TrEMBL record:
Keyword Cytoplasm: yes
Compositional bias annotation for Polar residues: 422-432
Coiled-coil annotated spans: 6-40, 462-576, 619-653, 688-813
Gene: NINL
Chain spans, region Disordered: 105-125, 176-201, 259-283, 405-453
UniProt-recorded name of the protein: Ninein-like protein isoform X1
Keyword Transmembrane: no
Organism: Leptonychotes weddellii (Weddell seal)
Domain of life of the organism encoding this protein: Eukaryota
Length: 824
């Protein structure tokens, strides 16, 4: 009996341990799944955040580019409207405006509290983007229209002048021929010979016509050259200025790093003028330009699309060769460089550009020195006089001061200092050489001057040099202060912008991480609560089983004690009772297991019901969204059909207009030919002008119709893209609904299977209950029989005791009788 009970307890323990292990494994699997899902969600969110940040950075870069281009184009337009000012003089103002805008914006953003800062920043960014797009589109369209108008005007102007001159000449010839014919007829009627004077007049007229035609051809060729040069300047100037501004703005943080890369790379000159390339004829050649030496100019040279008309080309080894050959007439040369103006203005124009780009300071100073020397020494030098030598000395001193200004400060590293010393030495050598030449020229040109005149001239030279030095020092101090202020403003703005951007990025990232962590914590807490509930239920069940086991052990011990008292007659009954008790314990364990499974299944059914309710709500929401999307699609289809109809109508109108234009053009061309043939005799000038005006009006109408058609086509494309996006969204929602339906079907199948299992278990439980009732009845009968046997045993024990007492009394009597007999 004890061994069977122990085996039964061991079986129960093994079953409990297997259940606990299985539950622990399920919990671990659930935790692993949750961790994997969490990691996947984090990675997905990180990727989305990275993509959004990249898009934001790209949009900010595009916004900055557009703003800078707009400002540069506005400045160029203002300059073109005011007059032909130098290109480099306005770059400093453009930089100051480009820096003052972000500075004011940052100062405004720092004033309000930090609570609504993010929302304001986003709204401002959106507003600025929209405004920039609108302004950029408007400016580009306006500039294109102006350029087209200028080109048309410049193209039509020489033709009109040519036609006017030809008409005048033809009218004169026609008048002269008429007079000559009349005179011939008159003389023929009189019988006289033609006067030789008319032949001489006719020859003179022919010579005049030939001269006028030659002069007109020359003037038209010169005007065409001028127009080409102006067009090239107007086309290249805004592009060059925008590229320079963008390069300066982009390469500001990298100037310090590039200046510390070594003196070997920066010792190479930016552009050396070759002395034997025909500098006197107006030809300049720039060779050996390295893109790494001048990083601020590399983007402007790399963007050579609009500048290909100026003669720029690039080979495959980062070497740009710019050849600009221009041989202007002496009149234009006198207009560009008048006699009373020296080259100091040219040097002063290059100072702000050199201050804004510190990477090419020494090389630009060397270029200035070579340029001034090249301009001062043409191919056929004129005789050097007193004013010319003084002008050369002033120019050379100005170049030396510029080299001192452009030299790097003490905080820019040893490499920059060595480069500055090298540039100063080259500039000093050039200055000394030019001064020697000037002194030789003055000594050769003025050998007849007396002593007091020489002294006066030396005093005048000293005074002029002192004045020039003071002016140069003042300008140098002003430029240094301006450059320092600009550098400080740029640094402060960069630091503030970087700090603000970093803070915003960190805040966005932290807020997103907090939301994700909160959601994950809520899910984990829900799962932990469910796991705790299941573990509590399991613990309660284990405690109940332990109590039942203790009760069974106590009952077994009592039965063992009672069985020890019982004898051979009760052994069979005891065996039966033990067998029945084992069967009862097995049935009880099965009943407890069935109860536990029933509870678990009921809970799962409740959870499944809740999920079904949530899924039903989600499905209803999706259906509502599908209806809305279907309505939107229908409206978009209707709008698309309407737009297509309008497009077809507009295309038909455009086709008709184009056919009409072609017919009118053909008719007009025919009429023009006829009119040109008969213009001298029949058609007046007013009709020609009216026909030209009508033709221009028809062309303008055709252009307007073409623009309207293009706009309508763009609208149709946008609507098609929107409709495709809506269709994609509808497909996605339909796929989601199908997936939810599949999940619901799977859940229903599982529930049906579980319900069938529960029914089978319920039937088994009913059978086991009936068996238990029968066992209880049998146990009751056995207990009654056991009580009867116990009473019988008690009666037999009493009889045994009585018999034992009688035996003891008999023994006493026998002992007494024996003692009496022995005594006798």
């Amino acid at each position: 009996m004890m061994e069977q009970v122990k085996e039964h307890c061991q079986d129960l323990k093994i079953q409990l341990e297997t259940k606990v292990n299985s539950y622990e494994r399920e919990m671990e699997l659930m935790r692993r799944d949750f961790t994997k899902e969490r990691e996947q969600m984090q990675q997905a969110f990180r990727l989305e955040v990275h993509v959004l940040e990249c898009r934001r950075a790209d949009l900010e870069v595009l916004l900055g580019k557009s703003q800078e281009l707009i400002r540069g184009l506005q400045d160029q337009l203002q300059r073109a409207a005011c007059g032909p000012l130098p290109e480099r003089a306005g770059l400093g103002q453009c930089c100051i405006q480009a820096l003052s805008g972000p500075a004011g914006r940052l100062a405004r953003e720092q004033d309000p509290p930090e609570q609504g800062q993010h929302q304001r920043h986003r709204n401002e960014l959106q507003r600025v983007r929209k405004e920039a797009e609108v302004v950029l589109n408007y400016e580009l369209s306006r500039m294109e229209a102006q350029q087209a108008a200028h080109c048309k005007h410049f193209a039509l102007q020489p033709q009109q002048e040519k036609e006017e001159v030809l008409q005048r000449a033809l009218l004169q010839v026609h008048e002269v021929t008429e007079q000559h014919d009349q005179e011939k007829e008159r003389r023929a009627g009189r019988g006289e010979e033609p006067h030789p004077r008319w032949g001489s007049q006719q020859r003179k007229l022919q010579e005049l016509v030939g001269k006028e035609q030659a002069e007109f051809c020359r003037s038209s060729a010169l005007e065409e050259e001028k127009l080409e040069l102006t067009c090239r300047k107007q086309v290249g100037r805004p592009v060059w200025a925008a590229d320079m501004l963008w390069a300066c703005w982009r390469d500001r943080p990298a100037v310090a790093g590039r200046e510390q890369e070594g003196a070997g790379r920066r010792e190479q000159p930016l552009a050396w003028l070759e002395p034997g390339d025909g500098r006197g004829h107006g030809q300049t050649r720039c060779r050996h330009v390295d893109a790494q030496q001048s990083p601020a100019l590399a983007p402007a040279l790399a963007r050579r699309g609009p500048l290909e008309s100026l003669g720029l080309r690039e080979d495959g080894r980062h070497v740009l060769v710019a050849e600009e050959v221009a041989s202007p007439p002496p009149e234009r040369r006198a207009q560009v460089h008048p006699c009373g103006v020296d080259r100091r203005a040219v040097l002063e124009e290059r100072v702000p550009l050199a201050g804004s780009s510190a990477g090419v300071s020494q090389t630009e100073a060397q270029e200035l020195l070579w340029g001034t020397e090249g301009d001062a020494s043409p191919a056929q030098p004129p005789p050097v006089g007193r004013g010319e030598t003084e002008r050369q000395l002033a120019i050379l001193e100005r170049a030396g001061h510029l080299s001192e200004e452009l030299a790097p400060t003490g905080s820019q590293g040893q490499a920059v200092a060595e480069q500055g010393q090298h540039g100063e030495s080259t500039l000093e050598q050039g200055l000394q050489h030019s001064r020697d030449k000037a002194k030789e020229g003055t000594s050769l040109s003025q050998p007849h001057l007396t002593g007091p005149q020489v002294a006066g001239q030396e005093q005048l030279k000293a005074l002029r040099e002192e004045e020039a030095n003071t002016a140069l020092e003042r300008e140098k101090d002003d430029m240094k202060t301006k450059l320092l202020q600009l550098e400080e403003v740029v640094r402060v703005l960069e630091k503030e912008a970087d700090s603000r951007e970093n803070n915003r990025i960190e805040l966005d990232r932290l807020s997103e991480e907090n939301t994700l962590l909160k959601n994950e914590l809520g899910r984990i807490q829900q799962k932990l609560e469910a796991a705790e509930r299941t573990s509590d239920a399991q613990r309660k069940e284990i405690e109940d089983l332990k109590r039942d086991r203790e009760k069974a052990c106590s009952e077994v011990e009592e039965l063992n004690k009672q069985s020890q008292k019982c004898k051979d007659e009760v052994s069979q009954l005891n065996h039966k009772v033990l067998q029945l008790g084992e069967e009862a314990s097995i049935h009880q364990a099965q009943n407890e297991k069935n109860c536990i499974t029933i509870q678990l299944l009921t809970r799962r059914l409740e959870e499944v019901g809740q999920r079904e309710g949530l899924q039903g709500e989600h499905i209803q929401k999706l259906e509502v969204e599908l209806e809305h999307k279907n309505q939107e699609c229908q409206s978009l289809r209707l709008s698309q059909s309407q737009l297509r109809e309008t497009l077809e109508e507009s295309q038909d109108q455009l086709h008709r207009a184009s056919l009409g234009l072609r017919l009118t053009q053909s008719q007009h061309s025919e009429e023009v030919h006829r009119l040109q043939e008969r213009m001298q005799w029949l058609v007046p000038r007013d009709l020609v002008d009216e026909l030209q005006q009508l033709l221009e009006e028809e062309r303008q109408a055709a252009r307007r119709l073409h623009k309207e058609c293009l706009l309508q086509e763009e609208k149709g494309r946008r609507l098609e893209t929107q409709w495709e996006e809506h269709e994609k969204e509808l497909k996605d929602t339909q796929e989601q609904v199908e997936e939810v339906g599949m999940v619901l079907k799977n859940v229903e199948m599982l529930l049906q299977e579980k319900v069938a299992e529960l029914k089978e278990q319920f039937e088994k439980n009913t059978k086991s209950d009936l068996l238990l009732k029968e066992l209880y009845v049998e146990n009751a009968h056995l207990t009654k029989a056991f009580q009867v046997t116990e009473e019988k045993l008690r009666g037999a024990e009493k009889k045994n005791r009585i018999l034992e007492e009688k035996v003891r009394a008999l023994n006493r009597l026998l002992s007494k009788i024996a003692s009496a007999s022995l005594s006798v």
